[in-house]
């Protein structure tokens, strides 16, 4: 039987991760191990989690790491003993059958075999129809009903809200995915944006997906209880979004006319979006400029 490790990177979110552990303990199929990589200052988090896990049969690995989603996940992988690695953000709340509903998906008959399983949010964000049309037109990431996820020509993603059955998907989302540990024999998370990374899940999916199939199951449910303790300002998130899309495109996407046009079209759409909407256009434009400066500096290296 496969050994299961649950991996959670955290930074200054003691209350949020404590709530996550509460939902982990209610699982109908308990994991063998919880690995937490803490990038925050010294605190009582380790002892607090140990106390919660006492008597559960779940072993606990606590590691310290430099702040950065990708860096912390890589530290966790090196410390994890499981065959299946569940990756969650620290402000996730699991439905009781999440792990139990995920595990059978790894035995589904796909070629190549299933290497990653994506869960489904109970309360997904739905774009207003006007913004959804805009995002579809400019090939910007958005969510859809139905069973057809897609990596668009821009390299951005059309995510599924809730498929009607287990379906193949092109990429996985890092805060709600389980991978075979084998997937990381030759690949690790790329820390291309130090600190709060954006798009690292899509980037590693591009590499792992060459050898494995990804699926999403509607039965493994979780809630993203977004923390008020946010990592970055809106301006910084815009800059990171621009650079991460550029980085993913240049590293992993074929430079065909279709993809080049799609990527250019995405940049036009993003630039219009952030320079004409929002309550603080100056900050948004500042974020755009910083994002494109990061791209230019990368090209010049």
Could you characterize the architecture of this molecule?
The chain has 301 residues and is of the alpha/beta class. The chain folds into two domains: 4-124 and 162-224, Spore Coat Polysaccharide Biosynthesis Protein SpsA, Chain A (Alpha-Beta Complex), CATH 3.90.550; 133-157 and 232-301, no CATH class. It contains nine helices and twelve strands. The protein has helices at 14-25, 45-53, 69-79, 98-102, 129-137, 200-208, 234-252, 257-276, 281-300; strands at residues 4-10, 33-38, 59-64, 84-88, 92-94, 114-121, 142-144, 150-151, 157-160, 167-169, 176-180, 213-224. Strands 1, 2, 3, 4, 5, 6, 10, 11 and 12 form a nine-stranded mixed sheet that branches. Helix 1 runs parallel beside helix 2 (45-53), helix 6 (200-208) packs parallel to helix 7 and helix 8 (257-276) packs antiparallel against helix 9. The longest helix has 20 residues, at 257-276. The mean pLDDT is 94.
Provide key terms for this protein.
globular; 38% helix; 12 strands; Spore Coat Polysaccharide Biosynthesis Protein SpsA, Chain A; three-stranded mixed sheet; 9 helices; 301 residues; 2 domains; alpha/beta
């Amino acid at each position: 039987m496969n050994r299961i490790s649950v991996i959670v990177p955290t930074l200054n979110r003691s209350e949020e991760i404590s709530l996550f552990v509460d939902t982990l303990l209610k699982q109908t199929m308990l994991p063998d191990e919880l690995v937490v990589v803490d990038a925050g200052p010294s605190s009582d988090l380790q002892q607090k989690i140990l106390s919660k896990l006492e008597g559960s049969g779940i072993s606990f690995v606590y590691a310290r790491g430099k702040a950065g989603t990708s860096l912390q996940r890589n530290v966790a992988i090196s410390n994890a003993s499981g065959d299946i690695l569940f990756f969650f953000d620290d402000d996730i709340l699991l439905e009781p059958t999440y792990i139990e509903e995920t595990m059978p998906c790894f035995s589904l008959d796909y070629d190549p075999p299933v290497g990653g399983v994506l869960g489904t949010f109970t309360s997904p964000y739905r774009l207003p129809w006007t913004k959804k049309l805009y995002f579809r037109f400019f090939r910007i990431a958005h969510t859809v009903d139905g069973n057809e996820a897609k990596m668009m020509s821009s390299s951005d993603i059309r995510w599924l809200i809730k498929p009607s059955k287990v379906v193949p998907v092109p990429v996985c989302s890092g805060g709600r995915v389980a991978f075979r540990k084998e997937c990381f024999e030759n690949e690790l998370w790329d820390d291309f944006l130090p600190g709060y990374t954006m798009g690292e899940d899509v980037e590693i999916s591009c590499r792992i997906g060459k050898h494995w199939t990804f699926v999403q199951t509607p039965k493994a449910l979780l809630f993203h209880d977004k923390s008020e303790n946010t990592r970055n300002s809106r301006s910084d998130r815009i800059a990171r979004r621009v650079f991460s899309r550029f980085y993913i495109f240049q590293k992993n996407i074929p430079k065909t006319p279709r993809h080049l046009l799609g990527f250019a079209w995405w940049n036009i759409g993003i630039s219009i979006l952030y320079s004409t909407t929002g309550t603080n256009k100056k900050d948004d434009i500042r974020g755009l400029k910083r994002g494109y400066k990061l791209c230019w500096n990368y090209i010049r290296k």
